């Protein structure tokens, strides 16, 4: 066995010596040096030949490389050089249509000996790039050929100075910013990755143009063996953080949703849990922000102290979870044995209830109010501007949050901020005088809970605005016009219904002259109900139409009173039409008991909805009877659930600027 191995080594040496000698002789043979005065002319003739020569790799040379026989390859080089009367160096400069040299082709095809021979005699080809910026090492790594990669790296390591590279070979990048290590990771070839890391471990810290390190790509491709190997390779976390663009390996595992991978990374490199992104947040901040509760649990087990780390804005992970309304994450974080929640303050002095309230997360606010760790101080705590959570909910016009908080007796409704405003003042100031349903709902939610406007605010803002408005402009004219159209339509419908009553009328040929022209079903109770409600709808709509016209008289007081009564008449007309319709349908289906029951149930259900909507829209009850208060809160709750105001008003920024301008004045 030892003898055969020795013979193979001797043959290898003989092969190398023979091939190197042949190529050296070929190089000398193809470089004639002129000794007479005709040299300039011969040189010019040579340059002209070279200029018209198409410098593309011939098919015969490509096939010789593909064949892998090194003697035939040298023979073909000699033939090509003699046939075209060109030096060997220019033959070696030939490229494919993709700009790949012979070294690229040999590396891609996995021809180790040819690759080694070219590298030894023409080292400058190692710096050659194809049209995508790939070196021969890139091509070899992409083709998953460990032997060729090792040959290139070995040849390069023997004498780096002769290659004239602008950087370390393993750190040279293509048009995408990928090193050979990137290409090997993408190709999922563990052997090639091992060879590249042996040659240069620091290549692991070089990102491509998309900011991806080889470790990122290993996680994205899901190759467990490669990312285990890369995790075992030393890399300076602090020095490389700026290159990660906020995506550490742990970030990538969380984005991918791979909990097993997350555990592997934490077990291999536990220090990564303290990595901070561009915003100064830890990985726990990121997991809390996206609401990945399973990742939060794993990260807390790895290092619970990261839960008390702040980002650049002073936010804890629980702040980011509250901002997005991730209830499960907040529950998980509050279970930890940390200091009291009142110490969770960001740079604005806001606790977690502030964050949840100002972002409209009603379910989370409700949970926090019920949590034993949230005491009355936390509920009414003021930030640096003097705003409590209730102030911030009012400032951002979140009626459901206001509803939840105002229902808690521990919430102090009339606390004032640094501007001397309570929550009700803020809603009143930020609202336009022609209240939108959202603003009106927010206002009456606080009013029904017992909040009162401060006299200073009333005189300074609200009353001055009332007095400064031009006459006749207290209500949006478009709204008045729409209401006027609705009442006019109600008049038309009810008028028509009076002459097309259910069951019809007796004809002129009826034997009894007293019955002629009268309703056939006049003695039925449902018919009487139909007639009464249709009459109410007719006259209330008519009165409403006339009173809406009073809005245009130009008198503020008359317009205000007229609009209120006209709106009431319109609502009464709509309700009466619904009741008249129910009575008419019940009358015509009274002979079918099943259908009559279904119609009755549907009528009760939908008429209840109409009444509830009308009450919420028009009747802000001022009664303090406990039953009336309960009814009010129930109707407000229905309205909040129906509207689902979870986004901040679009005009909020404009209103804030206007308010700041008024304060400056």
TrEMBL record:
<feature type="domain" description="PGG">
    <location>
        <begin position="476"/>
        <end position="585"/>
    </location>
</feature>
<feature type="repeat" description="ANK">
    <location>
        <begin position="245"/>
        <end position="267"/>
    </location>
</feature>
<dbReference type="Pfam" id="PF12796">
    <property type="entry name" value="Ank_2"/>
</dbReference>
<feature type="transmembrane region" description="Helical">
    <location>
        <begin position="525"/>
        <end position="550"/>
    </location>
</feature>
<feature type="repeat" description="ANK">
    <location>
        <begin position="348"/>
        <end position="371"/>
    </location>
</feature>
<feature type="repeat" description="ANK">
    <location>
        <begin position="279"/>
        <end position="311"/>
    </location>
</feature>
<keyword id="KW-1133">Transmembrane helix</keyword>
<keyword id="KW-0472">Membrane</keyword>
<dbReference type="InterPro" id="IPR026961">
    <property type="entry name" value="PGG_dom"/>
</dbReference>
<feature type="transmembrane region" description="Helical">
    <location>
        <begin position="480"/>
        <end position="505"/>
    </location>
</feature>
<keyword id="KW-0812">Transmembrane</keyword>
<feature type="transmembrane region" description="Helical">
    <location>
        <begin position="593"/>
        <end position="621"/>
    </location>
</feature>
<dbReference type="InterPro" id="IPR036770">
    <property type="entry name" value="Ankyrin_rpt-contain_sf"/>
</dbReference>
<feature type="repeat" description="ANK">
    <location>
        <begin position="132"/>
        <end position="158"/>
    </location>
</feature>
<feature type="repeat" description="ANK">
    <location>
        <begin position="313"/>
        <end position="335"/>
    </location>
</feature>
<keyword id="KW-0677">Repeat</keyword>
<dbReference type="Pfam" id="PF00023">
    <property type="entry name" value="Ank"/>
</dbReference>
<protein>
    <recommendedName>
        <fullName>PGG domain-containing protein</fullName>
    </recommendedName>
</protein>
<dbReference type="Pfam" id="PF13962">
    <property type="entry name" value="PGG"/>
</dbReference>
<feature type="repeat" description="ANK">
    <location>
        <begin position="210"/>
        <end position="232"/>
    </location>
</feature>
<keyword id="KW-0040">ANK repeat</keyword>
<feature type="transmembrane region" description="Helical">
    <location>
        <begin position="562"/>
        <end position="587"/>
    </location>
</feature>
<dbReference type="InterPro" id="IPR002110">
    <property type="entry name" value="Ankyrin_rpt"/>
</dbReference>
